[in-house]
Design a protein that fits this description.
eight-stranded parallel barrel, alpha/beta, homodimer, TIM Barrel, 8 strands
Amino acid sequence: MRRLDYSLYLVTDRALSRGRTIGDIVKAAVAGGVTCVQLREKEASTRSFIAHARLLLAQLQPVGIPLIINDRLDVALTVGADGVHLGQQDMEITDARRLAPAGFIIGISAESVEDAVRAQDRGADYIGISPVYATPTKKDTAPPLGLKGIRRIRAAVRLPLVGIGGIREDNAAAVIAAGADGVAVVSALVAADCPRTAAAALKQCITLARQKGSSD
Amino acid sequence: MRRLDYSLYLVTDRALSRGRTIGDIVKAAVAGGVTCVQLREKEASTRSFIAHARLLLAQLQPVGIPLIINDRLDVALTVGADGVHLGQQDMEITDARRLAPAGFIIGISAESVEDAVRAQDRGADYIGISPVYATPTKKDTAPPLGLKGIRRIRAAVRLPLVGIGGIREDNAAAVIAAGADGVAVVSALVAADCPRTAAAALKQCITLARQKGSSD
């Protein structure tokens, strides 16, 4: 199984980008230390989603940062992205695995220990624990799982875990300390005044939390 | 190239179904003479779209009626549908062909002679001429092409042509007479009091128009 560096995982959101292009935000965030990018386009047509994905892939491949596509396996396969991220209303992982090439990354959103165990059993590459904290970015999310939820999922599965939902500079270290391998953020980077500075600050929190964890 | 019977082509629309299930409407319409079904789900989640497509495929395969999926190649490949129908804002046909298995049907919506010629050059299996007449079913469509548009496209391409947009019992024959191989309908069947009777009436118009055409 291919294993990515999920330390600081940026999930895009065009509506939060304050007039800047996704490409510019991603470029700055990667310069600041983002290790993985997920392109999420809930409103775009298929053609437009593919065009955006191709642009982003051309930008990320030369710098060795993986591109994950939200929900749409057709888009991911068309552009040759590194993987797809599937929520509980998206394609079943078993269907996606059947259509995807070898080495293709499939991430699954888990809102409970049961979701996480099922995703691992069915062959997920990583799990997005969602939401860790309350977040205004996504509607209709499950109740926040909190640090306790991360610890419970960490105890139940061996896959890489990425926390998402309401994670910022002031709570990222706690998410890592609770057992997550990385933190995923939307607004903390997409809506930041300076995505590069914001990414660097988050990355430092994650690095320090890991050092502290390994020295405890 | 696999060639379907496009004579009477039903395109689904959940919002127009007046509380009936798509399965019940399709069953009645097929009993009345529908030869091809396209599942269109513009609002559904990927998981729900796949579930609907599986149900419809299980219903159509035993009676030998092909199922085409609107826009979403991922859904079509997942369930093993006969093909996909792509609009001008959907995936490019060249991308779809690369991902699809041999014999997979790809239909393209053409709003002009140029669209139709390009679709043929790129390997489409059939062309949906859209819209033939003004229609309240779809928003943001191009100006109606009319019978003149069908004749011009018929003269320019050899592919099967299916007219769509505002086609009903009183104008279906003219669409066939102008050179279409079939007519596609949404509201004329989905919103009909009795989809079976409505399908049978449309089918008769098509059959008579063909007999007249071949005896002229």
